[in-house]
Amino acid sequence: MTKTYDEAFKQDAVALLESGRPLKKLAAELGVCPVTLRTWRGRLGKNAVPKEQPQTLELAQMEVRVLRQEVADLRLQREI
User: Structural domain boundaries of the chain?
Assistant: First the structure.
């Protein structure tokens, strides 16, 4: 039987994960499969991919700027 978790639990788990806790250890402590926790992070985390596409050119351009900055930050982190 599949367990169901409310959104508050999922958001709290993602917050703990993003605070630096190791994924496998946190999943074991919460009694959640690591794959499930990773899925929640992808859907609810601060770097989550939005489900909806931008509605206007201005929003699309803003999203491109944000993503370019994120790529630059990640490249810098990788070099360090």
Answer: 1-49, 51-80
